[in-house]
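Researcher: Sequence of ABC transporter ATP-binding protein follows. Predict its structure.
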Amino acid sequence: MNKSCIVIKDVSKQYGKHHVLKNISLEISEGEIFGLLGPSGAGKTTLVKQLAGLELPSSGENVVLGLKMPNFQAIKRIGYMAQSDALYEDLSAKENLLFFSSLYGLKGKKQQKRIQEVMQIVELTEHIPKLVKNYSGGMKRRLSLAIALLHEPELLILDEPTVGIDPVLRKQIWNAFYQLNKQGTTIIVTTHVMDEAEKCDRLGLMRDGSLTAIGTPTALKADTNSTTIEEAFLVYGGDKHED
Ligand SMILES: Nc1ncnc2c1ncn2[C@@H]1O[C@H](COP(=O)(O)OP(=O)(O)OP(=O)(O)O)[C@@H](O)[C@H]1O
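Model: Prediction complete. Tokens:
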């Protein structure tokens, strides 16, 4: 097994009396595409926000890139794409990219070059001058991904990156993930889309704040005598998602 990129040690999270994460332990290796699969409310967002350094566990700890989170040195090496797009709608894509890249300290020719590169990855080059409010939902998701890539992160944390996106676009976005992964980027992605889950190297199945199973899609299916991940998920005590 490769070096660990993420080590989650007995992490729990409580909001008042509500136990949102229950004793989660998990290791993700460098270079993996790891999927967190589970129905709405299972705790996926809560967990990945902690990994991105945006929330704290109630107990346990998260070590990311060798550093206990939250840690600023680690955060600088992480690209995080939240579930809802955080874009300036009244600005153009170019202006958004200039703004976010300047936050990372990019300037001049290097900044221009990186903006071109990330927009090429998400196949939006020709739409750079457009106002974001004139982008479709799928284009906004891809622009959010481009922004998450600006500082060449070693780890990408993607919260439902393709939600509401049609299958053709979803394929394009996954091609971008594979390309980045081939270059060494570790990717953790939350999803409740079963065909997307099949694309991950390994999966963690989540339900009611617990990890009910961890394994490759093939192993999870074989261990449960299932032909699909959805069936395997149900065997491990999951709920079918209503979407
Ligand atoms: N700040 C908060 N205060 C109180 N409860 C919260 C807070 N954040 C999340 N929760 C609760 O934690 C539970 C898990 O939410 P979370 O968003 O992590 O689930 P999820 O698996 O990502 O679902 P979805 O796919 O709908 O985003 C939900 O019941 C949610 O209401």
